[in-house]
Design goal:
Organism: Glaciibacter psychrotolerans
Number of helices: 11
Keywords: DNA-binding
InterPro entries: Homeodomain-like_sf, HTH-type_TetR-like_transc_reg, HTH_TetR
GO molecular function: DNA-binding transcription factor activity; transcription cis-regulatory region binding
Helix content: 55-70%
Shape: elongated
Low-confidence stretches: 6-12
Strand order of the largest sheet: 1-2
Radius of gyration: 25 Å
Mean pLDDT: 84
Structural class: mainly alpha
Protein name: AcrR family transcriptional regulator
Oligomer: single chain
Number of domains: 2
Length: 249
């Protein structure tokens, strides 16, 4: 059992501290998913990481703080995968193709293939949501965390749609919330039914409900971008010029 709470030299402190935090985060990820946030103790997390309580408290004040750091890490990993899809998949699609239902189905499948296995994260997020519902001190923080995720995701989805000539027909934040709610519902159903696919595969790919409804929902929430006016079109003259033309005609 390691005690990483002691003093460290300035040169080695940042690297060692970073590794310690990463091990604690990985341990907490497993313990939260297995035992739940409420039942998980600091001792359980520290022991799973191979450290003492001192190492935990030299990096995090509470297990709730650790959860939000872990949540930010997981959020960023998913955004990076989403950006990979935007860069690799969307350039192959023309605005004319973007409206076809088959295009929506293929693109959604390709994007889901890029995302990681979300089963453990779904369990942990559900556990913490329940924890926050019971603890008013954590409720506001958790709501802010979820709202921040939705806003950042909405910005990325809005930009991605615009790149293929589409837009949301309602506020991007509201459309994104509907998409997230559907994905979370389908993921929970997939876990409960055991239709989780192969190891490492996104469980949503094994969900008949998600396969049927996610592409249809996104298609229903989108429309072509307005066509900008043609600058070369002749516009009727106005002002003195219009009066001169009327006198000459």
């Amino acid at each position: 059992m390691h005690d990483e709470s002691g003093p460290a030299t300035p040169h080695g402190e940042s690297s060692r501290r970073r590794k310690t935090r990463e091990r604690l985060l990985e341990a907490a990820y497993k313990v939260f998913a297995e035992s739940g946030v409420q039942a998980a103790s600091v001792e359980m997390i520290a022991e799973r990481a191979g450290f003492t309580r001192g190492a935990f408290y030299s990096n995090f004040d509470t297990k709730e703080e650790l959860f939000f750091v872990l949540g930010e890490r997981e959020m960023q990993a998913r955004f990076e995968k989403l950006q990979q899809g935007i860069d690799e998949i969307l350039p192959r699609i023309s605005p004319a193709e973007a409206l076809a239902s088959s295009t929506f189905e293929n693109v959604v499948t390709e994007f889901l293939n890029l995302q990681m296995d979300d089963r453990r994260w779904a369990l942990m997020q559900s556990e913490f949501r329940l924890h926050a519902m019971r603890d008013t001190a954590q409720a506001a923080h958790f709501l802010a965390f979820e709202n921040d995720f939705r806003m950042r995701l909405a910005e990325r989805l809005d930009t991605a749609l615009a790149s293929v000539g589409l837009r949301f027909i309602i506020a991007p934040e509201d459309a994104t919330r509907l998409i997230i709610d559907l994905c979370e519902s389908a993921l929970q159903e997939s876990i409960l039914s055991g239709e989780t696919g192969q190891d490492g595969e996104n469980p949503l790919l094994a969900s008949p409900y998600a396969s049927r409804t996610l592409p249809a929902l996104i298609r229903a929430l989108t429309a072509p971008l307005p066509v900008p006016p043609d600058d070369t079109t002749d516009t009727p003259p106005s002002g003195p010029q219009a009066g001169a033309q009327r006198l000459l005609s």
